[in-house]
Amino acid sequence: MEETEKRDLISITPEWSIPQLQEKIADAITGDGPALSTTPTQYKNLSADTCLVVNTSGSTGQPNSVAISTTALIASTNAAHKYLGAVPGDSWSLLIPTNHIAGLNVIARATALGTKVIDNRNVAEYVDADFISIVPTQLHRALNNDPKLLEHLTAAEAVLVGGGPITESLRKAAADKHVKVVTTYGMTEMCGGCVYNQKPLDGVEVDIDATGLIKLKAPMMASNYLNNPALWQSLTADGWFQTSDIGELIDGKLKVLGRMDDVINSGGEKISLVNIERLFNSHFPEQEVVAFGLPDAEWGERLCLGVTANISLADAQQKLTGINSPKEIYIFKEMPKSVLGKVDRKAAIRLALGK
What we know:
This protein has 355 residues and is of the alpha/beta class. Helix content is 28%, strand content 31%. The chain has helices at 18-30, 70-84, 101-112, 136-145, 147-154, 168-176, 229-235, 273-283, 313-319, 345-352, and strands spanning 6-11, 35-37, 45-47, 50-57, 63-69, 92-94, 118-119, 131-134, 158-161, 181-187, 192-196, 199-200, 205-208, 213-217, 224-225, 241-250, 253-259, 263-266, 269-272, 289-296, 300-307, 328-331.
């Protein structure tokens, strides 16, 4: 197709069945059908190489319409399958929403392998598959109170776990139950996960800038923010995608320490909230926790914890000492989470403030 050519863009509708959605994704990839948007959109046609438009929240919290090319989606699919050793005829189980890149990837990958995606959402009995993609909450649920889901995960050749950090205790518990976990790191702008088990996928380059932020370059990088091209240009000016995640490279492995906005400054000390949660889980492995900062006249920000169990501040302070010691603890009826099962730190702050 010529660069000047355009293609139609239509929105994915809830009325489509999964087989219908898979067929339309296949047509979007081959060019036999229009490009697809995960949400209703004002854009009716766009550049011919665009395959998907996935709405996501950027670092500013404002929704961004991420344009993903056919080339990027195919590169992502091929790199994932190369790492996993997937071959034509292998199957994928769908357990996550299809309005995010992770769910769309499951469908695209099944299509690439020549199989129908297995929709195992909201079912009484799971149909086994070779590969599965889930979020940490689903893994926790399988290991603690959903034996049927655990059986489904155990039967797979690999279970991709992304969308949030996974604790060492959860990873060990999964290994003890013979679940073959592959941790993933990425974002919609990189067509989903592009680092598996801390190792960059084929073609993916990782760098850490002077401020400790992760930068990524890969053939699966998205093309643009349709609604904010100036922001996209600023994040990719040097050819790398500038993330909001803090990390470090050790012997070629990427350790993600948390988002830039997951770090607070308390009494002049920078504290990683993700690390606080990991430390807490090392002492209280069965408890859900969210760490956050609240304004404080003395400390600038005071470190707070939100939990769903009856854990006292004294109990937490006995285990978490020094700069890691929380100043307050809040007991929530349930942990605030996003639709993908991620703990919602901003919602936790609102709950703590009674808003």
